[in-house]
């Protein structure tokens, strides 16, 4: 199988989404291990130190998993995999729902633009080639 070269004719927006997803994944992979080691002044939080340490470790592990998933999604978008387009749409739709609940209107617009863009015919065509 081996590593394939990127597909020619990739829409610019897909390139941007893939790069942003890769940056997000790398960030999560960098921050995740540190999250497991960071200990805040737990006396100020009113949380027993053991509890805080357990929460920090769990968050760190989740960030590492999210980082790996983000890198996989970035690769799929870059290579034009249909599953990646669908996954990105599901993530964007979930982002809209969360943004509606938390009233983050800019995020609603951004996630909505992503969903709209990923449903455009030329973008869908790029992903159906593979």
Order of helices and strands: HHHHHH
Instruction: Give the CA-based shape.
Output: elongated
Instruction: Estimate the mean pLDDT confidence.
Output: 86
Low-confidence segments: 1-5
Strand elements, count = 0
Indicate the structural class. Answer: mainly alpha
Main sheet overview: none
End-to-end separation:
14 Å
Strand content: under 5%
- Work out the helicity level: over 70%
The number of helical segments is 6
> What integer value in Å does the Rg equal?
18 Å
Describe the structure.
The chain has 130 residues and is an all-alpha fold. It has two domains: 11-79; 80-130. 80% of the residues lie in helices and 0% in strands. The chain is built from six helices and no strands. The protein has helices spanning 12-37, 42-45, 49-79, 82-102, 105-118, 121-128. Helix 1 (12-37) runs antiparallel to helix 3, helix 3 (49-79) packs across helix 4 (82-102) and helix 4 (82-102) runs antiparallel to helix 5. It is elongated. The two termini are 14 Å apart. The model is unreliable at 1-5 (pLDDT under 50).
Question: Characteristics of this structure?
Answer:
2 domains, mainly alpha, elongated, disordered N terminus
Task: Give me a quick take on this structure.
With 130 residues, the protein is an all-alpha fold.
SSE order and pairing:
Layout: H1 12-37, H2 42-45, H3 49-79, H4 82-102, H5 105-118, H6 121-128
């Amino acid at each position: 199988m081996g590593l394939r070269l990127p597909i020619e004719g990739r829409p610019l927006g897909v390139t941007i989404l893939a790069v942003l997803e890769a940056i997000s994944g790398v960030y999560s992979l960098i921050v995740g291990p540190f999250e497991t080691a960071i200990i805040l002044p737990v006396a100020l939080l009113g949380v027993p130190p053991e509890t805080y340490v357990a929460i920090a470790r769990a968050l760190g592990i989740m960030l590492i998993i999210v980082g790996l998933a983000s890198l996989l999604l970035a690769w799929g978008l870059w290579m034009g995999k249909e599953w990646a387009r669908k996954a990105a749409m599901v993530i964007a739709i979930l982002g809209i729902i969360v943004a509606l609940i938390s009233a983050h209107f800019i995020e609603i617009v951004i996630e909505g633009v992503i969903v709209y863009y990923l449903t455009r015919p030329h973008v869908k065509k790029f992903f159906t080639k593979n």
